[in-house]
């Protein structure tokens, strides 16, 4: 490792899927030398062509850090193999569960002083190197799990990696990590799949009445079943515990609704569940880990043609208003859509006035 | 009723919440005379100020159509009272369940020949007259349920209402309607609440690892528990049946994960559920009831300052590209965000080239 304060000059990425390739892209933007390896030569070629680094040759010079970006159950074996050939000074991984690879690494006799388990929370609905982006980690949490044997230099190398990728380092114990991701990612995924599964056999009439709510609830259910089977297998007990609690809550709600249908009883257990849902939903941080933000929403009707939004943003610009988020909704066969402009609450009035003054219809 | 092909010249809206007020706004845009009534005088005043119509006076001239926009369990009593005073020639409602108000209306001895039950699928996360919009029904399904006693003129009046509001009329039997909305709205709402409820007592560390997936799954769980208790009470049996099926699927998935955690068994029932989730999710129509659309996504880094998006849309305009949807993601404390521009697949390459030629960073 050089004296450079960045701490890492050369990195080997093993596994050029979405996350591995994105790590390479991010590091290359900072001039870090990146070597790429994957069991699929085509995936390495795509990653190289995207500019994520150069193909790795076993037996070449030792790199500062190896990033093992393979499915959870293969992390420990790769760690052992790389350590045997002294491929890197330090090692980390990016798998979505942490207890399993750490236990397996200990079981295989890996050197745990040079290894820090990690997990960038940066999944996308797409997968594979072609979906990779250098900015996928920007402002996102990146969990890391130093153990009792971990050398401070290994932690520093991983913190440098997280810093270079623009992530927010979050130190967490492996078991706490796995319980957390079961709660905020793995169990919600299975629940979304269970809701979506009811639609597989539904009538076209029923699906024709679907709105934005069910689309939101089930969006993640479009994820790759094979990939998610691996993720869920590696975090089986924590996910099972949460799914059991969710199933029990839904069973109680169903029983109360059954009783109401027969006896006209009140559905207090359902109301109670909805209230707890309110409480839980309100605790989810905003887009990038900050507290939930309330932007004001300015709605404006826009024509469905090129340039309409450009003119709209030009008005916002001239009014000195920064648009924090935009949602567009177009109606089919109609020349009009509605744009929802999310702005700081204090800027909403001025923006609406400016838009109206320029002839926009702000309902 | 006049000879006007529109069929309805005057409408009474009872209940000036989100839907009732939006109906008034939409009808006013077509010059229809709109009278507004609500048990809360303040709600009527807000709706009048928004331009949704004028306050109704009992005993005034008979209107062509009364739109009863009150919670499901109060629809029949309003219908009876309005019919007693011959307030309107025809009647409809907009409640989210249909079997209950129709049964109650029959039980109360209402005239069923002049009544057509209806339900515009146009909910928003907000509620109340201030959230009303004339365009909230544009391109959305609007279910209506004529019965064996319904007069053809009553159906024509309701179809005129749907047409004036810009909705897509969908004829459906009351029981089929209620099963459909249980599947695509009510049960998903409860399931989202059950997932969100697990977060109420979670650690800050766990919530700090939350990403876009769990935000999507739980978004609707932010809805008003009192309002949803009423909705779910009115559709208890169909919702109970679906929740039981979802709970059973989740229970089986949990059992398979428990077995895997103890014995290292395969989790085939989970994979199977994920596959069924894939199949169901892919059947959900696109934004406005059409088949799901695949837009190409062009990603571009944008500065977090006024005018940046205006310049970007200007480039798209000059390239002749229509932007179908936009998602912005800003990283906190960073001057950069990523914009995802959704465009027709054939336009993506040209847009990316045009943006790059103007100095934009398209990863």
Automatic annotation (TrEMBL), chains A, B:
It holds the Pfam family PDH_C. Gene3D superfamilies: 3.30.70.260, 6-phosphogluconate dehydrogenase C-terminal like domain, NAD(P)-binding Rossmann-like Domain. Residues 9-292 form the Prephenate/arogenate dehydrogenase domain. InterPro entries: 6-PGluconate_DH-like_C_sf, ACT-like_dom_sf, NAD(P)-bd_dom_sf, PDH_C, PDH_N, Preph/Arog_dehydrog, Prephen_DH. SUPFAM superfamilies: 6-phosphogluconate dehydrogenase C-terminal domain-like, ACT-like, NAD(P)-binding Rossmann-fold domains. GO terms for molecular function: NAD+ binding; prephenate dehydrogenase (NAD+) activity; prephenate dehydrogenase (NADP+) activity. Keywords: Amino-acid biosynthesis, Aromatic amino acid biosynthesis, Oxidoreductase. Coiled coil: none annotated. The keyword Transmembrane helix does not apply. It comes from the Bacteria. NCBIfam families: PRK06545.2-3, PRK06545.2-4. This is Prephenate dehydrogenase. It comes from Sphaerisporangium rufum.
């Amino acid at each position: 490792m050089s004296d450079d304060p960045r701490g890492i000059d050369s990195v080997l990425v093993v596994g050029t899927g979405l996350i591995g390739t994105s790590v390479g892209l991010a590091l290359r933007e900072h001039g870090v030398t990146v070597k790429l390896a994957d069991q699929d030569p085509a995936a390495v070629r795509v990653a190289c062509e995207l500019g994520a680094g150069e193909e790795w040759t076993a037996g070449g010079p030792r790199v500062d850090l190896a990033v093992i970006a393979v499915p959870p159950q293969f992390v420990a074996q790769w760690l052992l193999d790389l350590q045997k050939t002294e491929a890197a000074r330090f090692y980390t991984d990016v798998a979505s569960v942490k207890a399993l690879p750490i236990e397996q690494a200990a079981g295989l006799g890996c050197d745990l002083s040079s290894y820090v388990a990690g997990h960038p929370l940066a999944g996308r609905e797409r997968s594979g190197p072609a979906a990779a982006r250098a900015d996928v980690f920007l402002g996102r949490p990146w969990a890391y799990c130093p153990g009792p044997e971990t050398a401070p230099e290994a932690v520093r190398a991983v913190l440098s990696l997280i810093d270079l990728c623009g992530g927010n380092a979050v130190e967490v114990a492996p078991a706490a990590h796995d319980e957390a991701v079961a709660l905020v990612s793995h169990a919600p995924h299975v629940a979304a799949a269970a809701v979506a599964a009811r639609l597989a056999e539904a009538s076209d009439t029923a699906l024709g009445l679907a709105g934005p709510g069910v689309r939101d609830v089930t969006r993640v259910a479009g994820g790759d079943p094979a990939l998610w089977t691996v993720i869920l297998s590696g975090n089986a007990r924590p996910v099972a515990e949460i799914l059991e609690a969710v199933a029990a809550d839904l069973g109680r709600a169903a029983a109360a609704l059954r009783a109401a249908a027969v006896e006209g009883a009140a559905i207090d257990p359902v109301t109670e569940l909805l209230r707890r849902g309110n409480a839980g939903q309100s605790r989810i941080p905003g887009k990038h880990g900050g507290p939930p933000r309330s932007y004001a929403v300015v709605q404006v009707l826009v024509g469905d043609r090129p340039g309409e939004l450009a003119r709209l943003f030009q008005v916002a610009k001239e009014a000195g208003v920064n648009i924090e988020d935009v949602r567009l909704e177009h109606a089919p066969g109609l020349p009009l859509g509605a744009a929802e402009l999310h702005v700081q609450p204090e800027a909403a009035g001025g923006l609406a006035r400016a838009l109206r003054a320029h002839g926009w219809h702000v309902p």
